[in-house]
Amino acid sequence: MPGVGQNLQDHLTVNISYKIDKLKTFSELMKPLGMIKNLFEFFAQHKGLMTYPASDIGVFFKTNDKVKTPNAQIHFAPGAGKYNKNGAMKPSSGITASVCNLRPKSRGHLELASSNPSDAPKIFANYLEDHEDMQWMIEGVEKTREIFQTAPMKELEAKELQPGIKCINKELILRHLLEMNLCQCIIQ
């Protein structure tokens, strides 16, 4: 039928990670000896790291003064790392701020990979197909970086891991987003 698999909408999330050596993050707390302590706290006292949510701080914000209501969200997590091509993350000491476009205009679609119902469909997310989505994601990255330039964050001597200090302007941030295959995302 026409329209089946069309109009796929999803919230693009981009991670901005900072290396931090001045406090313990998931990376340190999940090492073998720390994990034994965490398991004890969880099973004996029902508290500690094992009860921690994936993210405990969330922020809604406007990426620019032209929007009337918040159009982006950040979730902060006490963990960082870098993803490889297979999607696995190598953890490191740090903080990750995940920026999300709340009202995406870009639309994707699904296609059948074959006539076999057991085969996963092909997913074309097209996250950054709309120019405004691109603009809001770039602005979201820039606003998040502003947070990491505040006095409390500077005290932690946070060093940006991702997208990295080489992404110094809108064009380079967009290039980073595109290199992450976000706009041409095909999941099989």
* H and E order: EEHHEEEEEEEHHEHE
Number of strands: 11
Biggest sheet architecture: 5 strands, antiparallel
Helicity range of the residues?
Answer: 25-40%
How many helices in DSSP terms? 5
Low-confidence stretches: 183-188
Order of strands across the main sheet? 3-4-7-2-10
Provide the residue-averaged pLDDT: 85
Radius of gyration: 19 Å
CA(first)-CA(last) distance: 22 Å
Shape: globular
Specify the structural class.
alpha+beta
Beta-strand content: 25-35%
Describe the structure.
The protein has five helices and eleven strands. With 188 residues, it is of the alpha+beta class. The strands form three sheets. The chain has a five-stranded antiparallel beta sheet with strand order 3-4-7-2-10, with helices on one face. A four-stranded antiparallel beta sheet has the order 1-8-9-11, with no helix packed on it. A two-stranded antiparallel sheet has the order 5-6. The longest helix has 17 residues, at 131-147. The relative contact order is 0.21. Residues 183-188 have low confidence and may be disordered.
